[in-house]
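Deviation from plan, reported transparently: ISE complex.
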Amino acid sequence: QDLRIAVVGAGMMGADHIRRITTAITGATVSAVVEPDAARRGAALADAPGAQGFTDLDGVLASGLADAVLIATPGQFHEEALLAVLAAGLPVLCEKPLTKEPESSWRVVEAEMAGGKQLIQVGFMRRFDREYEQLRALIADRAAGELVMLHARHRNASVPASYVQSMLINDSVVHEFDVVPWLAGGVVRSVEVKYPRRNSGAPERLREPILVIMELDNGVLVDVEMNVSIGFGYQVSTEAVFEQGVARIGEPSGLQLFQAGRFAVAEHADYTTRFREAYDRQVQAWVDGARRGVVAGPSAFDGYKVAVCCAAGVEALDKEGPVTVDLPVTPAFYAER
Ligand code: ISE
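Because the crystal trials were delayed, the predicted structure below was used instead.
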């Protein structure tokens, strides 16, 4: 029997996930859509045949229509929703971030541990991108020697009017704070932000691009170019420098066109296409895990660690030099099984 999923929030990511579950995922159906905005709710329900609409999460939890919940609301609403889903004992895939602050993330971690069963997977989809997986295996194999440095580029064509300076960290570099330790096998020890010349085409409220420097406890040094007004497209790529070689992921690929004296390969416009396969694999892994009663991706504790890094990153936006990151040891409850 299919896993009946309630999708909470039908904005850009919620709508994308609803289409994904309906068209690309096996073993699951969308049974409910929770969205206070009537127009969005209606549009989402049109993509999810048989699903029922709700205006709040409590309604769907009381209805018994959901075996699992996918939370795709903005981050400030995650804590309350996660605590309600944990209380109902349902598996949940929560879009990033887990929550916006370390304190609220820790409350979620404590609530999950108190319930005695891991139920939360956080939507850090890069872990499900095949090239990231391959790079992680290469690092672990040491086929080119030890990893020394990572140069990461995270470029967005543009950002919405709601995007403010702290979101360079909380909304965007948040992904690197999850995926870099996962790749490099270390723990973030410090975060520093440097400002190059400002992009005069950036919205007035933003001082960007920024260069984020992360030091890991295993000596690996990481720089992240975070750039959100680059215009030409969406680009997320990484160069890994080893003792005996270099590896690159996220390079433009696909049809190469030689025409009229030019050479061109199309670039993505946004993350929904750049990471489409990763999102599909993430949601499929979550569904398969939920049906077996296990969490198959980044945990709530991973989400908490990222929240701690983000708090340091936001501090570093306004400070010269590195900000120290202090992370607790992983509780036995979350130790790798
Ligand atoms: C957005 O929220 C995402 O999660 C994207 O992956 C990221 O590239 C973008 O910068 C964020 O705004």
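The pocket of ISE is lined by residues 156, 171-172, 175, 271 (CB under 6 Å). We consider this an acceptable substitute for the interim report.
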